[in-house]
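User: Some background: our group keeps a shared notebook of sequences we're curious about, and every so often someone picks one and asks for a predicted structure to add to the entry. Today it's my turn. The entry only has the sequence so far, pasted here. Could you supply the structure so I can complete it?
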Amino acid sequence: QHAELVSQAELDLHEDIASSYAREAREVAVSMQSLSRAMVDLAEQTRAQGAALSSIEDNIGVAEAKTADAFEQVQITDARQRDSMKRTYYLLLAVSAISAGAVA
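Assistant: Of course. Here's the predicted structure to add to the notebook entry:
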């Protein structure tokens, strides 16, 4: 009977150990599933941010090209305005000279 009690105690101990091990294994499995979901979410966020960055880079490239075009147009307009101012100045000078000659 003593051997039976020891064997039953050993069986109970092994059962408790196996039960504890199984519970911990389930907890690890649940944790791994959560980690897996988090990694998938992180990958999706990374892809989305990569697409957004790509779009931003494209927009910056377009803005850079348009800025260069605008700068060129400003230079052309400035040159034309200077030419126009020169013509106006020479016209006023000619009108002044003709007026001075007519008065004299």
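Suggested note for the entry: Residues 2-103 form the longest helix (102 residues). Helices lie at 2-103.
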